[in-house]
Amino acid sequence: MVLTLVSSLLLMSPYRWDYLKRCLTHWFNGSLNVDENEEFLTKGIRPMLLMESKGHALHAFVNQILQASASGNDTVSPFKLKTPISLKAGKNEIAILSMTVGLQRTSRSI
């Protein structure tokens, strides 16, 4: 099972701009219900989470547990994150924190 999250399908909170740290952050939140008879649960297979970002870094959380982090740079844009995640039967909360830092030449309209 491959889980691909598309930002337009997730609830996007307003961005936060921190002038002191020069950091732009976005939280993307969503949930997914997993049936207890799903094949990946019964066989002990971990689904894959695929993310692509044009920011500088991101953290992926499932059920409030950090699953993975990834980062890019000015020469590699966008960067990708592909990681196995732990899902349980029932409701699973997924949160992605996307960050762009130290941008002196980028507008706040990202």
Give an overview in words.
With 110 residues, this protein is mainly β. The protein has a single domain (2-101), classed as Jelly Rolls (Sandwich). It contains one helix and nine strands; from the N terminus they run ββββαβββββ. Strands 2, 3, 4, 6, 7 and 9 form a six-stranded antiparallel beta sheet that branches. A three-stranded mixed beta sheet has the order 1-5-8, with no helix packed on it. The longest helix is centred in the middle third of the chain and has 4 residues, at 39-42.
Topology record:
Blueprint: E1 2-4, E2 11-12, E3 16-18, E4 23-34, H1 39-42, E5 48-53, E6 57-62, E7 65-71, E8 79-84, E9 90-101
Task: Find the count of extended strands (DSSP E, 2+ residues).
Answer: 9
Q: Which regions contain 5 or more consecutive residues with pLDDT less than 50?
A: 1-14
Number of helices: 1
Can you say what the CATH homologous superfamily is?
Answer: Galactose-binding domain-like
Q: Please state the CA-atom Rg, rounded to the nearest Å.
A: 15 Å
- State the CATH topology: Jelly Rolls
How many structural domains in the coordinates? Answer: 1
Question: Which bin fits the share of residues in helices?
Answer: under 10%
